[in-house]
Amino acid sequence: MEELKSELSNLLLYYKDEVEFKEVCSKIPEYEEKRKVYSDLQHTLETRIAEHTNNFLSLKDKIAPNEEAALKKERELLHPDTVTQAREHLQSAYKDKFDNNQFAEAKSYVSDLLNETEREYSIRQRLEQAKIQSKQQNHQ
Questions:
Q1: 0.85 cut: is pTM over it?
Q2: How far apart are CA 61 and CA 57, in angstroms?
Q3: Pick from 118, 112, 110, 116: which is nearest to 46 by CA?
Q4: How far apart are CA 59 and CA 82, in angstroms?
Q5: What percentage of the chain carries pLDDT values higher than 90?
């Protein structure tokens, strides 16, 4: 009891008066409800990420080696739109709590899960890669 009284006294020190403290205490259920909503949303999103990642990886494993280049090209076409849609969805769900840095970290996290680290290629690297692919196709 004494410990609890001491904690109450310490809490009261942070507020000007008991009325202000009671006002904050009255908002605790509202804050708890918001925390629960955000926790549920996070769980839902984590579950969806895991499901979609597993689906993608299982489909990717079924791709024949000679079709991998075509898959990569298609993915590169779809990827920017998918990222934009994910950003918009999260911004609408989290509103002013949305954080661009956290989104960038999440994007990297998903790329790592898919074993596709995102790299920026220079124009020269892209041209060299195109030459190599062209030569490989000509030899086939």
A1: no
A2: 6
A3: 110
A4: 18
A5: 7
